[in-house]
Amino acid sequence: xxxxxxxxxxxxxxxxxxxxxxxxxxxxxxxxxxxxxxxxxxxxxxxxxxxxxxxxxxxxxxxxxxxxxxxxxxxxxxxxxxxxxxxxxxxxxxxxxxxxxxxxxxxxxxxxxxxxxxxxxxxxxxxxxxxxxxxxxxxxxxxxxxxxxxxxxxxxxxxxxxxxx
Length: 165
What we know:
Elements: H1 3-17, E1 23-29, H2 37-53, H3 55-58, H4 69-75, E2 77-79, H5 81-93, H6 106-119, E3 125-128, E4 130-131, E5 136-137, E6 144-151, E7 155-163
Antiparallel strand pairs: 1-7, 2-3, 3-6, 4-5, 6-7
Helix pairs in contact: 1-6, 2-4, 5-6
């Protein structure tokens, strides 16, 4: 599939996973040669800045600035590609703080997440701020947040859920 078609479909699938004021997404193509984790972290910084600048969150995080790239890189944990679709569907579909509340119907979230992950291929790299081994979350904002970031080395897809009690 051509790069422009991959990007267009990736944008469409990730848009299905977004929810106003809760689940923010970003998709794009790297312009740098041989992008790696620091370039992905830079795109995460942009998403964090945009999400926290949303009027819904400005009162909760006045003066917030996303962590610098090295700190973001340190906060990210690798996620196995075969786990990415289920993780993305949960991130987009289920509220972090109130798991009984759904942002999206399960079938919608699962279908869009599976397709988005498949577009980055079985060799895609996936990163999250969740530490699966210890069950901890490396917070990126003063809020409750959950992030999944994936790349195939050319394209990237990011999903971020924010919530507060």
